[in-house]
Design a protein that fits this description.
The complex is a heterodimer of chains A (about 210) and B (about 200). Chain A is α+β, with helices and mostly antiparallel strands. Chain A contains seven helices and seven strands. The longest helix of chain A has about 30 residues. Chain B folds into two domains: about 30 residues; about 160 residues, Butyryl-CoA Dehydrogenase, subunit A, domain 3. The longest helix of chain B is centred in the middle third of the chain and has 28 residues. Chain B starts with a strand and ends in a 7-residue tail after the last helix. Classes of the chains: A alpha+beta (about 210), B alpha+beta (about 200). The structure holds zinc ion (ZN) (2 copies).
Chain lengths: ~210, ~200
Amino acid sequence: MFREDGISRGPLEGLIVCPVCDATYQLQRPKNGERAVCTRCHKVLIAPRRKAGMQIIAVAVAVVVLITAASVFPFLEISAAGRSNAVSIIDAALSFTQGPMLVLALMTAGFILFVPLVRMLLTLYVLIPVVLDRPPARHAIRAFRWAEAMRPWSMAEIFALGCAVALVKVAGLATVSFGPAFWMFGALVVLVIVHDSFLCKWSVWNSLEHPKER
Amino acid sequence: MVACTRCTRAWPLGTPECGRCGAKLVSRDEHSLQKVWALWVVGLMCYVPANVYPMLKTKQLFTVDESTIIGGAVELAHHGAFGIAAIILVASVVIPLGKFWAVAFLAVSVRQRGGFTSHRRLLMYEVVEYIGRWSMIDIFVVAILSALVQLKGLATISPGPAAFFFALSVIFTMLSAQAFDPRMIWDAQDNDNEAPDHG
Ligand SMILES: [Zn+2]
Ligand SMILES: [Zn+2]
């Protein structure tokens, strides 16, 4: 079998190289549910799961819906001496508004809303054609690359812990209660973790390279 | 032979970019260490003002209270919230300082032999990569408090300049750790004792 760009499937294609320690192995695809682990540095190289594609798509759709909902509903409500204030995640992100703080506002909004949202949308864009056995979407390779590059910058779970800390900090000053968005955010954190653990990068790259032979 | 660190595919030596995922292929990034150090220094430079300037300004009736990162944690401890004070101290002081030390140690150790084994150093690298992001928690707490505590005439909280520098410091140290090529850890070991098969 020849690729369009003329590179044949030579012996090198049967190899897999650990990105962490450079150890080289003969490619042996593990069965679903099993994992191929680098014997030198213990990095998980391949971890396919049965029907992972469909499950990841379902999780990603749920995350997109939850992020959208969680960003507009209030997640914390404060009241003291008859005055009260309810804030949504958008309010929190936009609380840095003076001068250079605006940059901080945009970064905060990016880390908690924009990055997780875009990551899930890119995943959907890449995986839906693959799961439906269609040829990969246009620029699917670039899309998946961006989705992976965004992974460390998606900070939803850190924000969730931040809520708990803020709650305790304010507790002495006023009464604070959780709004609906807080619980959505809790669910979202779990879903993002599920998404990341189901996604086998190698399997995605491989199916983008050889769409037909999954 | 040269390997793609993004998708694990192997290519003949001299291939400029990975045919599968489009990543630039380099056997070893010679500039990796320079990037690590440059970002490390910028991160450290931002960390100093982050601790000197106030992080939070609290206005209550007639008093205005400005607290720095450490000041805020000490205050919390005074009120008996030891758990939260510990979280803030760990996220804002212990993790960033530990990270500066760990990245510097790794960057120095790939140049010289001996000391830690590769596995210990790799573990260190993974911990740094995983934990570094959590420093951002203090920024989010400041954002939440500033948005939430806006009770006119009673109490208002607003962010101080330290928040800006602290966020930058976290971002630059994350970039610094990402610029580090973990394969160099093993190269240092390979120079010590005969290498296993690798390309
Ligand atoms: Zn390895
Ligand atoms: Zn690649």
